[in-house]
């Protein structure tokens, strides 16, 4: 087993582990966001009830509750934005994994000597190459989407 093949296999395992760790971190953060959404929703409900029920409250108190409600809405919007970024990251991870798998398949066909390749092998190699280009294009679209989102937030 040549050294370069071992090196490629090791790098592939390392990148797979990195993707797995990133996916776990994203999943944890999505769960945290969900919990925070529920908490914000409960706080918002309490504030809305206070604003509706306490018409005799001082204007300063009502202003404070309104400001707190607006702060909760802003916080929720920020979490929704972060959640959308994380969902894009999940899609990107899936495409990255798919790209690595296609790379491995393509490499196995390309490492085969041309004289030993059957017409089916050549057809499969072309199909994998086509799929690889599609995956790269999808990843490019996601990156452009993230960039547009970032620019619009600025």
TrEMBL record:
<dbReference type="InterPro" id="IPR022735">
    <property type="entry name" value="bMERB_dom"/>
</dbReference>
<keyword id="KW-0472">Membrane</keyword>
<keyword id="KW-0503">Monooxygenase</keyword>
<dbReference type="GO" id="GO:0004497">
    <property type="term" value="F:monooxygenase activity"/>
</dbReference>
<dbReference type="Pfam" id="PF12130">
    <property type="entry name" value="bMERB_dom"/>
</dbReference>
<keyword id="KW-0175">Coiled coil</keyword>
<dbReference type="InterPro" id="IPR050540">
    <property type="entry name" value="F-actin_Monoox_Mical"/>
</dbReference>
<protein>
    <submittedName>
        <fullName>MICA1 monooxygenase</fullName>
    </submittedName>
</protein>
<feature type="domain" description="BMERB">
    <location>
        <begin position="13"/>
        <end position="154"/>
    </location>
</feature>
<feature type="coiled-coil region">
    <location>
        <begin position="23"/>
        <end position="50"/>
    </location>
</feature>
<keyword id="KW-0560">Oxidoreductase</keyword>
């Amino acid at each position: 087993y040549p050294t370069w093949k071992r090196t490629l296999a090791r790098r592939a395992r390392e990148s797979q582990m990195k993707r797995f760790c990133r996916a776990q971190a994203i999943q944890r953060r999505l769960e945290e966001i969900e919990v925070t959404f529920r908490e914000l929703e409960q706080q918002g409900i309490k504030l809305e009830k206070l604003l509706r029920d306490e018409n005799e409250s001082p204007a300063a108190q009502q202003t404070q509750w309104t400001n707190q409600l607006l702060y909760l809405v802003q916080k929720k919007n920020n979490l929704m934005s972060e959640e959308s970024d994380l969902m894009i990251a999940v899609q990107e991870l899936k495409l990255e994994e798919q790209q690595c798998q296609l790379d491995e398949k393509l490499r196995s066909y390309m490492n085969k000597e041309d004289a030993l390749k059957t017409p089916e092998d050549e057809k499969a190699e072309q199909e994998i190459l086509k799929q690889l280009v599609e995956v790269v294009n999808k990843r490019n679209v996601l990156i452009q989407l993230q960039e547009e989102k970032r620019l619009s937030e600025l």
